From TrEMBL:
Superkingdom in the source lineage: Eukaryota
Gene3D superfamilies: Endonuclease/exonuclease/phosphatase
Classification via InterPro entries: Endo/exonu/phosph_ase_sf (IPR036691)
Name of the featured protein: Endonuclease/exonuclease/phosphatase domain-containing protein
Higher taxonomy: Eukaryota, Fungi, Fungi incertae sedis, Zoopagomycota, Kickxellomycotina
Length: 408
């Protein structure tokens, strides 16, 4: 009898374990649901700000772009006009070359020229006059039975900033627009305001809101945070935090100096391995930075700032360049796992960013950060600028940004 009870108890534990595993898998599917850029479209929401008539979105296009290493440092000059039409690559799946060629073929203008921009993941079509460009915008082009999304471009005025709100923290879009209006319109001009909408249900996404802003009150400093009721949202303009890999600086070379940034570096005796790393914060962002740890293929730094109300915020930023050799890769992953687990064991609400060249595709990256067990999630990509490219064909995304507790 006792033996039967023991067996039943073991079976019960096994059943509970199976149920727990099922629940865990379901939760992981919900928490780490795949973000598909083809399901979302960027729309103009200026009408929520100034009660104007809803208009088509215009975007700044990027020319003369220079990128250092594989992550985040970009020097731009912005161009665009009423005669330039953009077509984003991220709306297409499969063969991007074929999709762009098809769109170009269907544009009824034999004199149109076009250029590819690998940073913006877009192709720009240049027309002779506004009438030709407007004709193109008004003539739908269907690829695989889906209308290709084209957008007009705009030239940014001097000193105009593109301000991003990476995560609206589940805040209602109208409340967000009101808060931006209250903070910014008395100090400058908002030219454009956009957000991402789901194509199927027309609901707004919580990531990727941005607006174009130019100061008219020059004493006004763009805040690092936007405080709305109990929410505190982070704002970024230009690149507030940089994580660079493969700087190719050795221990014998001088410090890398980036105008307007404070840097901490990781340099080795040999530069051919590409393991040299850098984390930097923009001086005008009000963030401070200090180095925490420096290993062969990863480094950690602490950045800290204060909100307008005096609340202190601290983020641990980890920049990685995963080695190709399996043994070195295994060592690096184990070091980071233990490092992050130790941080969270002391403070489960600690804000963490893990970013860089993972040398892993999206699925492998999500599996690894889930294994670490500290709550990291991979941040969704709207207009991927970190894909491995061959001409204009998008390959695997191996550069990623993961975070936890970034609900300021």
């Amino acid at each position: 009898m006792k033996k039967i009870q023991k067996i039943k108890k073991k079976i019960g534990k096994f059943e509970n374990l199976k149920n727990f595993n099922k629940i865990t898998k379901i939760m992981l599917k919900i928490i780490n649901s795949a973000f598909n850029p083809q399901e979302f479209t960027e729309v103009l929401i200026m009408h929520l700000l100034d009660n104007s008539t809803s208009k088509a979105l215009k975007k700044a296009c990027y020319f003369n772009t220079f990128c250092l290493a594989s992550f985040s440092l970009v020097f731009d000059s912005y161009g665009g006009s009423n005669t330039t039409i953009g077509c984003s690559w991220t709306q297409f799946s499969g063969n991007i070359n074929a999709a762009i060629d098809y769109v170009a073929l269907k544009i009824d203008d034999e004199y149109v020229s076009y250029q590819h921009d690998s940073r913006a993941k877009a192709t720009y079509f240049n027309f002779y006059n506004e009438e030709s460009a407007e004709k193109c915008m008004n003539a739908p082009i269907y690829y695989n039975s889906i209308a290709a999304e084209l957008y007009q471009t705009v030239t940014l005025e001097e000193e105009t900033q593109i301000i991003m709100i990476p995560n609206t923290n589940s805040l209602n879009i109208i409340k967000l627009v009101e808060a931006v209006n209250n903070t910014f319109t008395k100090n400058g001009i908002i030219y454009d305001f956009s957000a991402y909408k789901n194509k199927n249900n027309s609901k707004f996404h919580t990531f990727g809101v941005k607006f174009l802003f130019k100061k008219i009150i020059y004493s006004f400093e763009i805040p690092t945070f936007l405080e709305i009721d109990k929410f505190v949202l982070a704002l970024t303009y230009r690149e507030s935090v940089l994580c660079l890999q493969e700087t190719h600086l050795s221990e014998k070379t001088s410090l890398l100096q980036l105008k307007g940034y404070t840097c901490v570096e990781s340099k080795k005796n040999l530069t051919k391995t590409g393991s040299e790393l850098l984390i930097a914060v923009q001086n005008r962002s009000s963030w401070g930075i200090s180095e925490l740890r420096n290993e062969y293929s990863w480094m950690a730094a602490k950045i800290n700032s204060k909100t307008a109300s005096g609340k202190e915020n601290e983020i641990i930023v980890i920049n990685i360049h995963t080695p190709h050799l399996a043994t070195e890769k295994k060592i690096m992953k184990k070091q980071i796992e233990l490092y992050l687990q130790n941080i969270i064991s002391k403070n489960e609400n600690k804000k963490i960013i893990l970013a860089g060249d993972f040398n892993m595709d999206t699925k492998s990256t999500i599996n690894w950060v889930n294994k670490i067990g500290v709550g990291l999630t991979r941040m969704p990509v709207f207009n991927s600028r970190v894909s491995r490219l061959k001409k204009i064909k998008m390959g695997r995304i191996i550069d990623h940004i993961c975070s936890v507790n970034l609900n300021f």
